[in-house]
C-alpha cells in the first residue's frame, strides 16, 4: 500500500511539473536536416519560463538555460548580511523610473506572474 501511495504521488508530481510542456514531432528542414522530436514549454508569450531561459534547467536534457531576455536583468544568487540566501532571479532593468518596475502597482512580473504592489 505504501509503495502504491509513493508511485501515485510521484506520478502526480511528474504530471504537474510537465503539464505545461508539449511534444514537437520530428521534421525535416528545407536543407534536408532531420530534427528529432522533442518536448518544449507550452507557448504562452512568456520568455521567462522557457527551459532555455537563464536560471532554468531543461528537465529532459539537464542542460542549463542560457537565453537572456532583453527586457529584464538577471540577478545572480547571493547571501544577505543576515545570512538569508536569495536565489538568482529576473528583475526589471534599472532606469530610474519607479513606474515601470515589475513591482510597481499596475504592473506584473512576467517571470512569476506576481502583481506589483508598490
Distance between the termini: 50 Å
> What is the number of E strands?
8
Characterize the main sheet.
2 strands, antiparallel
Low-confidence sequence ranges: 10-18
- Which oligomerization state do the chains in this entry correspond to? single chain
What is the count of DSSP helices, taking H or I runs of 4+ residues? 1
What class, by secondary structure content? alpha+beta
- Tell me the domain tally: 2
Nearest-angstrom radius of gyration? 19 Å
Strand order in the largest sheet: 1-4
Global morphology: extended
Strand content: 15-25%
- Average pLDDT, rounded to a whole number, is 78
Order of helices and strands: HEEEEEEEE
Descriptive notes:
Mean pLDDT is 78; it is low at 10-18. A two-stranded antiparallel sheet has the order 1-4. Strands 2-3 form a two-stranded antiparallel ribbon. It has one helix at residues 2-18; strands at 21-24, 27-28, 34-35, 38-41, 72-75, 78-79, 85-86, 89-92. Helices cover 14% and strands 20% of the residues. It has 2 domains: 1-43, no CATH class; 44-118, no CATH class. The longest helix has 17 residues, at 2-18. With 118 residues, the chain is an alpha+beta fold. The protein is built from 1 helix and 8 strands, in the order H-E-E-E-E-E-E-E-E. The protein is extended and about 50 Å long. A hairpin with a 5-residue loop joins strand 2 and strand 3 (34-35).
Amino acid at each position: 500500500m505504501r509503495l502504491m501511495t509513493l508511485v501515485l504521488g510521484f506520478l502526480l508530481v511528474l504530471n504537474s511539473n510537465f503539464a505545461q510542456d508539449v511534444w514537437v514531432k520530428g521534421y525535416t528542414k528545407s536543407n534536408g536536416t532531420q530534427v528529432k522530436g522533442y518536448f518544449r514549454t507550452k507557448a504562452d508569450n512568456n520568455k521567462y519560463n522557457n527551459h532555455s531561459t537563464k536560471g532554468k534547467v531543461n528537465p529532459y536534457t539537464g542542460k542549463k538555460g542560457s537565453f537572456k531576455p532583453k527586457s529584464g536583468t538577471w540577478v545572480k544568487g547571493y547571501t544577505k548580511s543576515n545570512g538569508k540566501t536569495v536565489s538568482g532571479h529576473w528583475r526589471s532593468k534599472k532606469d530610474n523610473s519607479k513606474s515601470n518596475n515589475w513591482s510597481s502597482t499596475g504592473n506584473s512580473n512576467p517571470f512569476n506572474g506576481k502583481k506589483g504592489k508598490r
